[in-house]
Task: structure prediction
Amino acid sequence: MRILTVDDSKTMLAMLQHTLSDAGFDVLQAEDGQQGLDVLAQEEVDIVITDINMPVMDGIEFIKNVRSSGKFQSLPILILTTESSREKRDQGRAAGGTGWIVKPFDPEKLISVINRVVH
Amino acid sequence: MSDLDEFKATYFDECSELLIDLEEQFTAIQDGDKSSDRMNAIFRAIHSIKGGAGAFGFTSLVGFAHEFETLLDFVRNDKIDFTNEVIKLCIRSNDLVADFVEAARNGEELDPEYGVTEKAKFVALCKASSGDSGDESGEPMEEFDIEFTPVLVEMEEPTEEVTEGWLVEFIPFRELYTSANDPLLLLRELVELGEVEVKAILKDIPLLTDFEPFSVYCTWEITIKDKDIEEESIREIFEFVDGDCELKITKFEMPVDEQAFNEDAKSEDLEEDEDMPSFADLAAEIAPKPEPEKLKPKVADNAANNADSDAKPAPKAPPVGMQSIRVDLDKVDRVVNMVGELVITQSMLTQQMDDNLRHRYQELVRGLEVLATTTRGLQDSVMAIRAQPVKSVFSRMPRLVRELASKTGKKIKLEMVGENTEIDKTVIEQLSDPLTHMIRNSADHGIESVEKRVESGKEETGTIRLSAEQAGGSILIIIEDDGAGINRERVLQLAREKGVVGEEQQLSDDQIDNLIFAPGFSTVEEVSDLSGRGVGMDVVLSNINKIGGSVIVKSVPGRGTRMTLRLPLTLAVLDVMLVRVADCPYVIPLSSIVETMQCARVEFGRLPTGARVLKVRGEYVQSMDLASHFEMTTDVDEKDRFVVLCEAEGTNKLALIVDAIIGQQQVVIKSLEENFERIEGIAGGTILGDGSVGLIVDVQGLKNSISNQRTAAA
Result:
């Protein structure tokens, strides 16, 4: 299973990488939405985890872009967020986000959330 | 190193980068650039610092960063005016964040009162702007909890003698599918809760002719036969689709026999369910396939937009972030060390080749030549790994200059050149303090007040120019100002008063200028708030010397001062001159050697104290016979020996007398203290080409020992 992680924080990318690799995922990384789109254009990905606050292209914009392509309508996208306000989360969902992960994440919880959105 | 430590290291590396970036952003903001790009960049940086801090449980950092972030969020959304007051508060808070990060890095806890005043200001500002304190600002940790909104559920009164459980009615809307959620997965998760019966309600599915691909026809009824399951855990499963479906969760009661009946039905129902195609898949299949090129023009457009925007022109990394990797410094050092050993082995092999062998084994000679070239190349490449742009140090300077300007009431601008010049990481780390001090010195003592500048016909604004460039095997860092220059009369007078210079001693202009580096010397009588913090330029010099560098100052009265810092490209490898003293090899760092002479061709004299001095171009330089200093005897005739004229701190010279000069080479420095013990006058050891140990002469140390003897004698 291939998973694309999009976050401008290298720490977060590293932690995701660690948890996900251990769980047997093949992990791809991108540091902003634009890079994320670039990866999606080239690679087959089963699920995306994306941060919201990012330079160049933020998570909301990224999700909108992904969903605008018919090819990715059933691609699960999890929003990675520390925002407590429902506002951001709802924006992400309205843009087409499948679900969300609250940072800092518990590894088990992360895997269970992923299992909730992918086969 | 545990995983957590590794993540922490990554986190702190990232924090350092972010803090440098923040510094730059705030500098630009102070210069009047309050663009939203900058504000967003600042917000993101603080946000990232906070995010990581939360993961590692640095609560005080999280607490502070959270409040700061809230304020920044208000500012970037124009809810608070970005006045100078607010800017100052932000800059101060940025420093505090750095302190919190530093404390976290060192595993320390700061005073609980630390940053409380600033926090109070954030809250007050946000409160004033929004009319209420805002629930975000109150509890910093709040957002790390997953919250559930309690939902009122209609419940039937449970009666005795029946099995209780939950009935879940699940009616997905179209939106559930368009956000790539999949009912099957949700049902699968429900099944994991306990005994579950799933019933698909298919009655609404129309004939194929009436079937609309994007409509939802199927709904589900799920029975959970376990009353002990919390409603919350059921709701949690549907958390992501809240609002995208109709969900009714009801507690129910059921006769025992019916339960048994349903038990059988359960597995069949589920299987039937698994066979059904997922609607998400279906939708994807029916949806028109996008042409593969579709994304590409968009990507190009965005790249172009990036280039146009004035946000920081960060080089665009390749998609998977492979442009750089983070490697533990220890690992790099191990490689550096091993390459060092390789260089030694290689030169040892080369030395073993005598003429006889050379003739007999020409292939071997060629091989060795290739090995030599490759080894050098390898060494250069490895050294390059440790190199970093001086930018990380330079970037702290604009702010310093601004602070100095505002404190002194002078007008000063800072120009920086060559920020991308790369130096060894260790050198960079040691560079910050000396550089800060020298800039302070320039701003405090060099640049004149506005009135004085106008009087002497200069521009009101003084300029400090900070530049870095590579010159051969060294890096030059030059700090120039167009200020008043060094007041030589005052310097000399003070030096005489303080006994740094003897009454009768005549000094050249250069020597006077360099007196500012003499220990215990400070030209400003009243210790100023800025430069004079009890640390003189002598400390700067010794710091620079410690990393194998030197400082030279040149000054033109009325025109300005230039301080040139010469630093080695790397610390691990040293260019040396190999000499022999009493049949033992010694190495003298090339950077401290001024010239070499034959003893037969120079003139020595004796001071009344008995000390031997070398007369060179009208100047007397203290001389030292290395053989007798290290208590060894040599049978080489005085006239056949050599003088190596060395330069210690500033322009202090010392003439070392050695038996022979063997040649120049590069050596890998080995610590003597680590392997043996500290010896005065010896800076370390190295393994030479033939495998023997060469001791590295510490010129400054030798010079000091003479001064000490003199003081002791007096």
User: Anything to note?
Assistant: The first strand of chain A starts at residue 2 and ends at 6. Chain A touches chain B through 54 residues (CB under 8 Å). The mean pLDDT of chain A is 85. Chain A has five helices and five strands.
